[in-house]
Amino acid sequence: MFRAKLSVPSWIALSAAALLAAGCSSTSVDKTANWSPNRIYAEAKDEVGSGAYDKAVPLYEKLEGRAAGTPLAQQAQLEKAYAQYKSGEKANAIATIDRFLKLHPASPAIDYALYLKGVINFNDDLGMFAFLTRQDLSERDQKAAKESFESFKELATRFPESRYAPDARQRMNYIVNSLAQYEVHVARYYYSRGAYLAAINRAQLALSDYREVPALEEALYIIVRSYDALGMKDLRDDAQRVLTTNYPHSEYLARGFKGKDDPWWKVW
């Protein structure tokens, strides 16, 4: 049977052609190459409007380059941060905002940038499924909460008349309550493990660091119970007098600790 044989040069030519074809097929065509900045912005807004945040991000990135040095580029940067946040890229969103704050310190949108950064860190504390597990913000790591508070505080201090300031102040109050309750949550954990001195120290930390927040009632109750468990009756009675003086109708003395179905933020 006759079999055709390819010469070495033919093999090389075919291999080169195959590689070239593969390279061409893997190179995506930039559909925005001939688009104006305004059209890119409109397309990105459409993607955001339809919930396709992941598709909007690269469009905003292209717009940043095409409209560099213009207010539209600054707008694109902020809207990209929002799209990153909504698509679950929180670390990238924070990095984008930090870059905006560094590059545009005099921008009229600084208040919004600070607000958005605060919201991203604020929501990072309480996941979208927390209502199913009944996990409240105080039971999670507080690093993001503290960073959120700082962003809101800077916004409220530098731009007290900003449209975002009222909401920022409300969130600040919630965060302060959360941070205090976090200390009490740890104190309660120590108490439940029989580490009464550690429980007292953590509860006293909440009392010394925070004022007029709901968590302090439970902090005092933990101190009362811990001193009682240690047999230190005089200190127990002193703590109980403080508790009843500040919270004359405290339900802790009547029913004990709140259960999981009765979270701390129900008092609001």
From TrEMBL:
It comes from Variovorax paradoxus. This is Outer membrane protein assembly factor BamD. Residues 36-240 form the Outer membrane lipoprotein BamD-like domain. Keywords: Cell outer membrane, Lipoprotein, Membrane, Palmitate, Signal. Belongs to the BamD family. The lineage of its organism: Bacteria, Pseudomonadati, Pseudomonadota, Betaproteobacteria, Burkholderiales. NCBIfam families: OM_YfiO. The keyword Signal applies. It is a lipid-anchor. Part of the Bam complex. SUPFAM superfamilies: TPR-like (SSF48452). It is found in: Cell outer membrane. The gene is bamD. Gene3D superfamilies: Tetratricopeptide repeat domain. One of its GO terms (biological process) is Gram-negative-bacterium-type cell outer membrane assembly. Its main location: membrane. GO terms for cellular component: Bam protein complex. Residues 1-21 form the signal peptide. Part of the outer membrane protein assembly complex, which is involved in assembly and insertion of beta-barrel proteins into the outer membrane.
